[in-house]
């Protein structure tokens, strides 16, 4: 619900176009003189809308609607198909919202950023807690300068780890996510935070605002509890409606709202932390239908957790966050929250052993010691200022740049798994140099039939033939990864699998894991978090996991035999090699739709 009245939009604000949008050409039917009218003087306020849209207004509308289309294809959230099903019946209304936003006299605004925002930092007196004691006991034989790590590859174990940490926390929970859904997993997760706060644990929850409106009653209800603070990162000015309408009515600030907090971080008692690719929703923990994400997290202990706490504090106290109570007014939030949590039932089942043979985290915490690999690690992280419109860090300081530099230092092999891959000329140059040095380069990403972001797939597809011609071993995962023959513990045997893990193994000994995709958004627009862990043991576990995924549900790409400059897809089906000359599992209608849409979307927006 909006908490501030709409203010007049200045002509300056209305005419300000996002940098990316300026690269989309104006329609050819417009004469140059019509496309490049002199701007009005700064500070002129439109007192009433024009009777008919001007040519410039129509051009701006086209540009912003295209930007809206891309914005609705943002990654790392619940599957796009679900959102599109929800938006399709009201698409005409959504476009009407966008037109109104462009031509109307007013635009939504945010309350003052400092309202009701107090500064707080990580609690230091945590050494006495049970979790701190478990962390120390787990590291008793390790070098004190090393951190401990355990992979969480299976959805049931990954959810169990978060619930177990929340239930055993005694002092603090510091939590940061791009998405906390209002589904069963999201409600169960927030229930655990409420229960922890009732025990006296200080809970700080930071969520990106883009999809927060879907969970606003839950977030407002949680914030109404004692010992809880909830804040939203980089909020959209428009507070009412679904994500499509909110974005359309916030287009006057597109350059700012295009930058999102993509981090995923869970810290318990300043002693144990979970990072990786998972958001909080059914689809990330193998509880969704008809599709689920294949993902990876890491449970961390030791010195690296202090770096996570410092990073969380930077975001929590930044100018880019607003307390949820200044943005959402939901009446009796506590009562609504309690009502929303009814009927959740008990805990989801957890397999006794995960794919690596490890017991559930809850069992190991109760036993007083975690199974972990200890190794040196380096943190790659963007700060909140990356989302600012002014004073942003230099690109060399971005988290993904640090990860790419680690790959440049490879000596023998680089194995990359990324759900969204748009290498661009820079990425191709990196692969070209690696192959020139004799490095083996293996890349895994989603096929068109498996991806939840077809426009991003189009951005990647134009580079496939050249990647393969360079000798890159390119594999596209198919939806078969979620089917019974491929299902791992914690997976739904009937669901379709989509790769969502963001991983790289360098030289068989260094593991890169976190929230970063190999695309322009992760480089330029989103804040990201990743770890480079120097651990051959972890590298082997990830390599084996990715090898399994390639074996049971992927296509290997190679140059097409009879079409120079094209590729073909090779798979093992029923014990024999099958060659597909076109995108497998996709009909002509979907290919046509994607081809038409791709004509209007600049790669810079993907």
Describe the protein.
There is one protein chain. By secondary structure, the chain is an alpha+beta fold. It has 3 domains: 7-107, no CATH class; 130-367, Endonuclease, Chain A (2-Layer Sandwich); 378-605, Endonuclease Chain A (Endonuclease, Chain A). The chain contains 21 helices and 23 strands. The strands form 4 sheets. It has a 10-stranded mixed beta sheet, with helices on both faces. Strands 11-6-5-4-7-8-10-3-12 form a 9-stranded mixed beta sheet, with helices on both faces. Strands 1-2 form a two-stranded antiparallel sheet. α16 (424-436) links the parallel β14 (413-417) and β15. The chain is globular and about 70 Å long.
In short:
The chain has 606 residues and is of the alpha+beta class. Helix content is 34%, strand content 19%. The protein has three domains: 7-107, no CATH class; 130-367, Endonuclease, Chain A (2-Layer Sandwich), CATH 3.30.870.10; 378-605, 2-Layer Sandwich (Endonuclease, Chain A).
Q: Provide the CATH top-level class of the largest domain.
A: Alpha Beta
Instruction: Outline the biggest β-sheet.
Output: 10 strands, mixed
CATH architecture of the largest domain: 2-Layer Sandwich
Helix content: 25-40%
Strand order of the largest sheet: 13-20-19-18-14-15-16-21-22-23
Structural class of the secondary elements?
alpha+beta
CATH superfamily of the largest domain: Endonuclease Chain A
Strand content: 15-25%
CATH topology of the largest domain: Endonuclease, Chain A
Q: Which value, in Å, is the CA radius of gyration?
A: 24 Å
The tally of domains stands at: 3
Q: Mean pLDDT score, rounded?
A: 82
The residue ranges in which pLDDT falls below 50 over 5 or more consecutive positions are 1-55, 73-95, 101-105, 484-494
- Record field, number of beta strands: 23
Distance between the termini: 30 Å
How many distinct helices? Answer: 21
General form: globular
